Amino acid sequence: MTEVNTPPRTAQGAPEEAPPRTGRYTRLVTARPRLSLLVALLLTALAVLAGGGVADRLGSGGWEDPAAESTYATKALEREFPASQPNLLLLVDSGRASVDDPAVAAEARDLAGRLAGEKGVTGVGSYWQSRSPALRAKDGHEALIAAHITGDETAMGRTLDRIAPHYRGTHGPVQVKLGGIVAVRHEMQTIIKEDLTRAELIALPITLVLLVMVFGSAVAALLPLGIGIVAIVGTNAVLRGMTAFTDVSVFALNLTTALGLGLAIDYALFIVRRYREELSTGADPLTAVGATLRTAGRTVLFSALTVAVSLAAMMVFPQYFLRSFAYAGIAVVLLAAAAALILLPAALVLLGHRVNSLDLRRLLRRRRDPKPAEGTAWARTAGLVMRRAPLFALGTTVLLVTLGLPFLGVRFGTADDRQLPSTAESHVVQEHIREGFPGSPGGGLEVLAEGRATESQYAAYKQRMAALPEVARVDGPLVKGNSAYFAVRPKGEAVDEAAQRLVGDLRALHAPFKAEVTGTAAVLVDTRHAIAQRLPWAAAFIAVVTLLLVFLLTGSVLIPVQAVVLNALSLTAMFGAVVWVFQDGHLSDALGFTSSGSIETTLPVLMFCVAFGLSMDYGVFLLSRIKEEYDRTGDHDAAVRHGLQRTGGLITAAAVILAVVMVAIGTSRVTNTKMLGLGIALAVLMDAMVVRSLLVPAIMRLTGRATWWAPAPLRRFHERFGVSEGDPRRT
């Protein structure tokens, strides 16, 4: 016979006596509320100072695997053959004249000579020096000066800032624009900082208006914003400190702002809402805070842990782009939870009933007579869904799977200048090179040969490379000591499937020396391999820890499995939209971006970890309220209806507010940031409005009381180690 967990009862059949209204933790965080808030204010001020200028110390790369063959070869070529790795390109436009015109050539040679003398610049070469056809446009009116800026990303950015004004613009008969990977990444970093400021200016006032609409009280609405500011400022200080000993991506700032506001608002919404509920029953402020921490506070703690687990999974990957989001995400989640569980209770005790002050909806409510019971619409929705549970379960599942189908056609690529607006200078330069120059300069493959070899051995190896079916031309070797360098031009595009196959063919060739392959296609191949190799470990980490945390919260075996499966299902619409919009280019004009025909390889991993964590956030809110009611009454169906009634509006409001923040981030002019913001906004809305509102109650109705089943050993484990809302221990 199926055995289910039932709520604790006394010998007479009545529920056990309610737990103490205040516990040790409540007394601790509310003992000196004014002192707590003053200390928090001082720490926040210090964090503002510590985190100032953090964006200037962050990198704009980090997509490569540092242990990959392509990464090693790139660094070795930069050291031994800097001219083979140009990261700065000067596009010299001669107007109506030919680039071979004597006046044009003289000016270009002068520019190249001056550039070669700049500190931090090496490997300068030009069309006028080498006469290479690859450096001359097909129409004869543009040509390139190539150079390599040395140092790390910060040093390269400073060098570019110093020299760019002296080369950009008109010089006699020529016009010069700056491009290359250094210019692309530096411009990307600048745009991200500007866009982040604009996103904050958009999100904050809209968020405040929405919070006032949710709470009515202007005082209550300001509390979540205060928690969010503490979390964001604190995380910026953490990231600033981390830049002293590791690389951190500038893209992580967007996640800091989004999660800092979003999660702080989620947690504060849940706590303030529960506090006001307790006050409405006649409880005094201290007692209401104690009851809130035993219930909503415990839910916030578990929610923060599940989100942090999802983000921590990105630490598995070697790319510092992904690891940066783990650093920022974990810091902002923990700071948001800490502020909500330490500072917010202190503020609520001080405010007392004044938390309802400045009720801006009072006049509107006076016109509503009688006032409908709270959550009536959600109660009706829950009833309808549970009466037609099979229909809703099947219908929503089919809808979500259908929306995710475009992801089956995903093509992975690398981030390039097309991430930038079409008017960005470096994007313009790279577009001119792609469309107007033969052989896509800088887009081929490079082979580094290390070890002693004779001219005949180099020649034989070059012949074998040239004989490969995807090779258009092999240049070199350029020999220096015991190393040599070959440039291999593929027949097709620089990173298409043929170029990626060519990487494997080159690496499989026999050579009498050590040979390493790098280039754009090689980096893509190595990145995909690194992600594919570690993705199962990351997914297993998220799944196992999430299953354990949800079990500790609910004591059920089935609910954790449902949570993981339904959360993953809620992300299908996001992944389908990413491919349909950003890869295939639908809505590109309306959204203002240039489609590259592929998705940057690391983005789906990042979006999965962030969106899965946020989905668990809402899932924990709903499940904890259902569990609390089930423990109180033992009625499964009534508990599901009550849980949706009490949290449906709250979860939807939190999702809408978080979506506003993410859409504000999605207004960025950098495509990856736009994709991240809009994609996660879609994911959280689908999760709140479809999965939590329709699919979860339908599935729980179908599973019935078996939902709460656990084998006897696990029940005993949960009784000893698990906690749930209302548990008085340590609160």
Give your account of this protein's structure.
- With 731 residues, the protein is an alpha+beta fold.
- 63% of the residues lie in helices and 9% in strands.
- It contains 25 helices and 11 strands.
- It has helices at 24-30, 33-50, 69-80, 102-116, 127-130, 153-167, 181-215, 218-242, 252-280, 285-312, 320-351, 362-366, 376-387, 389-404, 425-436, 455-466, 497-508, 520-554, 558-570, 572-583, 588-591, 603-633, 636-665, 671-703, 712-721, and strands spanning 88-93, 121-126, 142-149, 169-171, 174-179, 412-413, 445-450, 471-480, 483-490, 514-519, 599-600.
- It has a 5-stranded antiparallel β-sheet, with helices on both faces. Strands 8-9-7-10 form a 4-stranded antiparallel β-sheet, sandwiched between helices.
- The longest helix has 35 residues, at 181-215.
- It is elongated and about 90 Å long.
- It starts with 23 loop residues before the first helix and ends in a 10-residue tail after the last helix.
- Residues 6-21, 367-372 and 726-730 have low confidence and may be disordered.
